[in-house]
Amino acid sequence: MAEREIPGQYLDGYAQLLADVSATGRRLTRDEIAARRALGEQAAEAGHGLRALIVAHLTATRAAWPATPGSADSTLAAMTQVVDALAEGYEHAQLVAVRREEAARREFIDDLLYGRSDLGHLAERAERFGLRLSHAHAVAVAQGPTAYDEGAPVPRRVEHALNARFGERNILLTTKDGRLLCVAPGDQDEVLAHFAKHAYAATDGCRVAIGRPQQGPGGVVQSYEEALNTLELAERLGLEGPVLRAADLLVYPVLTRDRQAMADLVRDALGPLTAARGGAEPLLETLNVYFECGCVAAEAARRLALSVRALTYRLARIHQLTGADPCDPGHRYTLQTAVIGARLLDWPAKAL
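Request: output the structure for the sequence above.
Response:
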């Protein structure tokens, strides 16, 4: 596609300037350079191409040359100064525009993720960045071993992989608080799965949490908060797997919705374990591993590096202290729920 023709206003005085420089042998003054730099900025802001701007000046130089007496070296030096000043002004204008765009994008992302803006205005701004907030959206959050910002190689690598696979499909990839984020339409789960795959590869092993699709302008922040909560749950509960979905872990928010009730359960069911030699932690870990193994004593003993006899002794000691038998199906549910609650509330490290 041909570039737009450069208007004559960007060449005003150029031929006379060459003639004067050629006749006197002088270099351009500071004000003359500043004027050409300003013209370069104006051309960039008006949407003209830098190549077209330089070609226009080279053409003007050639046209003015036959009528220009004096030193060819001075003329070429002046032309070089003019082109350099134009390019400098043009690049400065582009840099300012990029920074302005980055600031607007970051402000939009902050408002989007924290819900601090009027939802109607937020939806209007979202279209500029490829999102239609009237539809449902889901958010995936990747937390790696280090913090990332948008200019880092890892986000660029992940963005390239997404663009190569899906192109322009109303996807927003960004960073927030050192984490990678991907916002995608709620009915395009393959986008978030692809993001998780490449984020894991690019970070040499990260954990990705995916929130549920949520409807409307406020849906993005809801899904984002779900993903963050899922990462926190995974950390506290030691959940395995690089990709965790909030939809698969809804039981945990339900258990902690009434925090005081859960704290009471942990205190009543497991509080007596603090009287054990060595405190509650070893016996609490025994219960946790025992339940994770499906109450299979041999497997639990192997994971804990204990003999089956030692494991059986610990389970008996738990029964003695709490009055609840981990081997009894009637007691098992209460104990297991209390163990999950203890991990969610970080007990006994934190007092209830």
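The CA atoms of residues 301 and 310 lie 8 Å apart.
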